[in-house]
Amino acid sequence: MHSTQLLIKSLLRYPVLVILTVILGFSGAVFNGVGTLLILPVLLELLGEASEFKRNFPPILRTFLEVFDSIPEGYRLLAMASSIVLMILLKNLSNYANSLVSGTLNRKLATSLRREGLRILLDVDLDYFSKSRVGDLINHLNVEVSRTTIAVRNLVRLASVLITLAVFLGILVITSWQLTLISIFTLGSVALLSQVVIKRSKALGRQLSSLSRAYSSRVFEVLAGIRLVKSTANEENEFATLDRLILDREQAEFQSQLIFAGIAPFNEMASILALMATAVLGRLMFSDQLAYFSSVLLTYLLVLFRMMPFIGQLNSLRSNLANTTVSVEIVSNFLRRDDKPFMSQGHRQYSTLQTGIHFNQISFRYPNHDKWVLRSIDLYLPRGKTLALVGTSGAGKSTLADLLPRFYDPTEGRIEIDGINLKEFNLQSYRRRLGIVSQDTFLFNASVRENLLYGRQEATEEELISAATRANAYEFIERLPDGMDTMIGDRGVLLSGGQRQRL
Fold first, then answer.
1. What residues are paired with 124 via a beta bridge?
2. pTM of the prediction?
3. Into how many domains does the chain fold?
4. At 361, is the secondary structure helix, strand, or coil?
């Protein structure tokens, strides 16, 4: 999935919220534009200069003022001032509602992306995890998804700002298309200069994502292997490694802050220069129409001045989008299903073993490897019998065992359960009937009861005790401080190795 496709897909997930955001942005722009146009005549009226300038007002302003012609002259100024206050109030209400809707969109999008990512991680084959770092995956779900939602939010805000600018630009064109050409030229030069900042921001965004991924992976590895770290007295080395990653990340964030902090003053200086250039060039163009020019220029500069903050927002949003583009690319690749291995599902529901299991001419090699791990294995396991596989390390004993729960499928041959191809069974119904005690025992940081019930949540207390007794675990469970409700720590660290295996 391309990053652009992810952005479009994300927006299409919540069309109502997106459309509402655009409508509110447009409404705020209209209220802002109307309020701005009314400021000049009110100021001139207060200064007693309205009659002198009114006949030279631009057509768009005269159109707005005609609305107030039916109001008695003694109340006209009050009505116009009240209209400005009303427009400002409506604009702020629109902006407030827009912020709420944008926040809701941001939260819902983050939730949906994380759910989609978790769904993929739970569905994908084990081979995917053997090629991925768990710290990277956690970083994708947390940091990169958050930055992606920021990118989508900025994209929606960008649309609102563009709508606002379009409204103001329309007012400027109607007021004076000649002055608008001058403004476009001066502001276009500013946009070209901003492109340098945007490219640098994108490069820093890529660096930040890389450092964040490296930091998350290293922290996870250190915490997962904390016993090894302490047993080898390697705490200082690990701290130095993590400290270097933290400092590198801080430096990248500082450089990003330098860019973002510089955008506002740069835009302000550029805006002042653009206003001055517009006034000077306009004065030269209208040198023979000074009376007309003064009223047009005042109106034009007022609208342009009100427009400048939105141009600053536009440049800031462009820089922020460039900074988070890398995260969008990472998440879009993370959410792809076509490049990940998924185990095929059968349609048969598995109930119980009737006769036996047949490894029928099994050969296996790991994906993207040429070396065969198993070759032409033919083995039959009758029901009720115990089988021990004996061989040197690396002979393929664990690999053969991994084929039975379908962690992998044979490269050649097939596994038959009661004469039926294992691939025909539904994976969930089949695996629920398996009991596996691996060499690397994993237990959750929860109570004994919660760990025992993990594979079968609906089991009764009697079934729980019966299973623990058959595994020779009930005796030591009773001796624990809180029995079945005793918390056993991360990976069962509070239990002995033998106790963990029996659980």
1. 342
2. 0.72
3. 3
4. strand
